[in-house]
């Protein structure tokens, strides 16, 4: 890729990335780690933020710009990237010997968002989460040299649970954009038609379908809890924080009630603070605290 093409992609300053991380649903406890880990995570986060913003169609033609990201990613492994996000990423890839697969899957997830707006089955949605969510957890573990199937499996469960929790918080905005992540098989199970779901009305069927999704997110988050005891040092507290943040997001969906069909189900600031306190206690437990 030449410098002219790379210049077509947006750039992010360190302060912009820090502000974006502060707005994330799920806290990133980067302050727990040595400076080289913080810098490595910041570089990975910059990549994730870039492709997600492009995929959400905020920055121009998403397919064209994601193709530019693919070219810059190849340059990270085979040459010299020119875009600042990838320039920061290349030494992290080399230092920690990261493979291209996770980065490629994140780009593929955002390409899929341009083609597929509705999902028919849980299998389809799980496959999407394997592109859009689980690579992030796998990269975090790779920075610590963790790649065994057991811990990757627990990480994948947490990341998928987090992704689902975020989806159910955003059912209103997704519907307005023509997206439906809740699988059609769930709607049918609760007697809901496409038209009924598309209406955004808080019908009994629509409510039941959302709660079905909430239950699946909670099960996955709890299935991933063993990872809390399978990672080193202070990562245990961080993993507990991720799980409890996801559970707090599902609690927010339940607390929002019918409002979830018209606005985002946000985690109250006070609850965000409580999550950190609860994580500091719960990480020693065999199971996470029970949600509402």
Polypeptide structure, described:
- There is one protein chain.
- The protein has 292 residues and is mostly helical.
- The protein folds into two domains: 12-115, Farnesyl Diphosphate Synthase (Orthogonal Bundle), CATH 1.10.600.10; 117-283, Farnesyl Diphosphate Synthase (Orthogonal Bundle).
- 66% of the residues lie in helices and 0% in strands.
- The chain has 15 helices and no strands.
- It has helices at residues 3-6, 14-22, 35-55, 62-78, 84-96, 101-115, 122-132, 134-142, 149-169, 171-176, 184-189, 194-199, 204-223, 235-256, 269-282.
- α2 (14-22) crosses α3 and α6 (101-115) crosses α7 (122-132).
- The mean pLDDT is 89.
Proportion of β residues?
under 5%
What is the helix content? 55-70%
Here the CATH topology of the largest domain equals Farnesyl Diphosphate Synthase
Mean of all residue-level pLDDT scores: 89
The low-confidence runs, each spanning 5 or more residues with pLDDT under 50, are none
Helix and strand sequence? HHHHHHHHHHHHHHH
How many helices? The count is 15
- Sheet/helix structural class: mainly alpha
Main pleated sheet: none
Give a count of the beta strands, DSSP E runs of length 2 or more.
Answer: 0
**Fourth-level CATH superfamily of the largest domain:** Farnesyl Diphosphate Synthase
